[in-house]
Amino acid sequence: MVPYLAGGVILTDAPLHRRRRQTINPGFGKKHLETLRGRTQAALPPIPDGEFDALAWADGAVLSLLNGAYFGGEFDSHLLHSFLAPLRRPFPVPALPRPLLFLRVDAELRRLATRRLMAGGDDLLAVLAPIPGGLEEARVSLAAAHDTTTHALAYAVWHLANHPQWHAPPHHPAVLKETLRLHPPGWMGSRRLKCELDWNGVKLPRGTLALYAPYLSARDPQLWDAPQQFRPERWEHKPPAWAYLPFGGGERLCLGIHLAQMLILDVLSALPSLRAVRGDDSPVPGITLGPRGPLMVRRVS
Ligand code: HEM
């Protein structure tokens, strides 16, 4: 596993995993996130005038939003950028060990956590700091949060710029669901079989490692009408069971499911009217799936 994700809840196996999630889930629950919302809304960088690359803009915007949610904007932004930027580069860059960089990030986490422990606070670090291993959870979940949310936001902006009739807050939840159906940043996951399985005549014993692909199940013509098309109206109805898994499922459901949705929907609401100019939205698989880019859009005044 890449060093960024090799820790905390991601590396904790059952049966300890469930207890670990129970400890950290409340900080990432809807109720606590609502208390952070004013702060993350204020952390959104200005939307550029004229033409801009939605992918590059989303990258910087998500960095700032996460800094707001986790640290009240106090984390050294250059260090945060240096820490997270390699994750979006092609392999093997994200897999290279970066002991010095990680030490600097851990030192910054400790500096800010000490402040929270002495003076209190209500950001995500304030919730994680008193938990044993909480700083590692902060570092690992930041890494899990950054390019997933960046890619989802960039694709959502691109879809809105191509289908401006959907650019209104009441439509945005369906736009986001449709974006994550077509372009799930978490494109591949794994599970161990809980019981023996007969699959097309092949017997797979309990404990076999099985891969699942949210990208493929969300484009299966046996499960979806016109699966390749962007049709937010399809979300007037429930999707078929287990066909839609952009945040995974079961006990390892994404920890940041509510955070990601809150951040992205708030950004979409803050965006002016946009039109697509030109771009390459073909999906490029890395740790997460993202658009090749650039995705050039322009403001319509
Ligand atoms: C649109 C944005 C996001 C997408 C599409 C996404 C997707 C996923 C997926 C598919 C998994 C499950 C992997 C598996 O099969 O085991 C997962 C797990 C996880 N996600 Fe996200 N994620 C997003 C944003 C975030 C954010 C904002 C955070 C910040 C807290 C986060 C933290 C995590 C963590 C810590 C796990 C591991 C959970 C565990 O093993 O118990 N993710 N995510």
Task: Give a quick rundown of the structure.
The protein is an alpha+beta fold and 301 residues long.
Secondary structure blueprint with pairings:
Blueprint (H helix, E strand, L loop, with lengths): L15 H9 L5 H13 L8 E3 H18 L5 H8 L14 H21 L4 H5 L5 H29 L9 H11 L6 E4 L4 E3 L2 E3 L4 E4 L1 H4 L39 H14 L3 E6 L3 E3 L3 E3 L3 E5 L2
Helix pairs in contact: 2-3, 2-10, 3-7, 4-5, 5-7, 7-8, 7-10
The structure holds protoporphyrin IX containing FE (HEM).
The site of protoporphyrin IX containing FE has 23 residues, from helix 7 and helix 10.
Topology pattern, helix = H, strand = E: HHEHHHHHHEEEEHHEEEE
Q: Please count the beta strands (DSSP E, at least 2 residues each).
A: 9
Protein structure class: alpha+beta
Strand portion, in percent?
A: 5-15%
**Fourth CATH level, the homologous superfamily:** Cytochrome P450
- Bound ligands: protoporphyrin IX containing FE
The residue ranges in which pLDDT falls below 50 over 5 or more consecutive positions are none
CATH class: Mainly Alpha
Distance between the termini: 46 Å
Number of helices: 10
List the keywords.
301 residues, alpha+beta, Cytochrome p450, three-stranded antiparallel beta sheet, 10 helices, binds protoporphyrin IX containing FE
Description:
With 301 residues, this protein is an alpha+beta fold. The chain is built from 10 helices and 9 strands. The chain has a single domain, classed as Cytochrome p450 (Orthogonal Bundle), CATH 1.10.630.10. It has a 3-stranded antiparallel sheet. Helix 2 (30-42) packs across helix 3 (54-71), helix 4 (77-84) packs across helix 5 (99-119) and helix 7 packs across helix 8 (172-182). The longest helix is centred in the middle third of the chain and has 29 residues, at 134-162. Protoporphyrin IX containing FE binds at residues 9-10, 21, 28, 141, 144-145, 148-149, 152, 184-186, 189, 246-248, 252, 254-256, 259-260.
